[in-house]
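Weekly structure sync, notes
Attendees: PL, DS, HV (note-taker this week)

Item 1: Cupin domain-containing protein
DS walked through the input record. Source organism listed as Pseudonocardia ammonioxydans. Sequence as pasted into the shared doc:
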Amino acid sequence: MTLTPAPLLGSLVHLHPDGAIRTERPEADTDLDRDGWLLMVARAESDDDVHGDHWECHTGGDELVACLTGGLRLVLRADRPGEADEEIVLAAGTAAVVPRGRWHRLALDAPSDMVAVTLPRGTRTEERTKPRVSGRPISP
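Item 1 (cont.): predicted structure, written out as tokens:
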């Protein structure tokens, strides 16, 4: 078997439950019901690159978010309306673990290279502009 290098930046690395590891194109990120862990290494130049207009929540497991270069903020949504969101500043070389089931998003302080590792199964997203009642989004 001949091994060939794969570009890590801009790829997804799928760690399958059977022990196999495969790199995938970023478009595969839309399959949120896959089994196994997903590792993403990305370069972000603006909040648009980190989907800053959406909250996300991983129900399948915790998420590790690491800042390799630059600077970013991990924003944890308040549990109740009227409370302030919590922000964790991630400077280059630091990481934080988002607990399973916690709504969160990223915001950039500078162009950044980052790593994220999570179980994608059960991931939910929600637009930031949706109003909330009792900590739950209002259905349209």
